[in-house]
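Hey L., structure's done. Input below.
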Amino acid sequence: MQRMVVLANSRKCGGYCLAGKALDLAGRVGGWVRPVTGCAADGLPRQRTLCSDGRQAAVLDVVSLEWGRSEPHLHQRENCLIGPAVLERCGRVLWDDLSLLADRAPTGLWINGHSTHGGLNDRVPVPALSGLHGSLYLVAVHELVLYSRPGHGNQQMTFRADFCIGQQRYNLALTDTVATFWLQTVQRLELADAYLCVSLAVPFRDGFAYKLATAVITKGRAGSVV
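Output:
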């Protein structure tokens, strides 16, 4: 059994994207891990994200689980085949520990300059994916703005995260189920300090892979069991 600090548990293709960083028994932080089934493009079934106590693995939980061989899919090099064992919750990371888990992104998140109509620097063209070395970041952000807006026509409400890394601004789709729940009662939420887990998804049929804000970690959330 291996251990992982959960840094994202968000919606993905009808299932869930569970991702985090490996943690050895001495507490040393390793690389990113995204447990996947045989089809890396699909999300994990909800059952595979449950711990033995029947609750889902939550962001900042330390869980023990099995993962096997590497299953890279294009730029998603962190993918590993999930084993059959049930997840076991065995601890929790505190707010003050997050600086040890955070990544440096001095030049920003992967490749910039490609934006959707409603976003900013929120996608990467497929031909550029082969030159990337990973698909996950945990970054400290300041002046993060989360907001919701009505979908077009019959589409559902959409959720966005707007923030800066250095001088580079981003506006990404927000897929964190906890953060989107916060936006059920307020349309806009401004956060002075937070950590953001960002994932570069598998390519969409329009020829782009999209950057997704998959977890918003605040000091309050770090202190609660959600």
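Residues 33 and 78 are 5 Å apart (CA to CA). The radius of gyration is 17 Å.

-- N.
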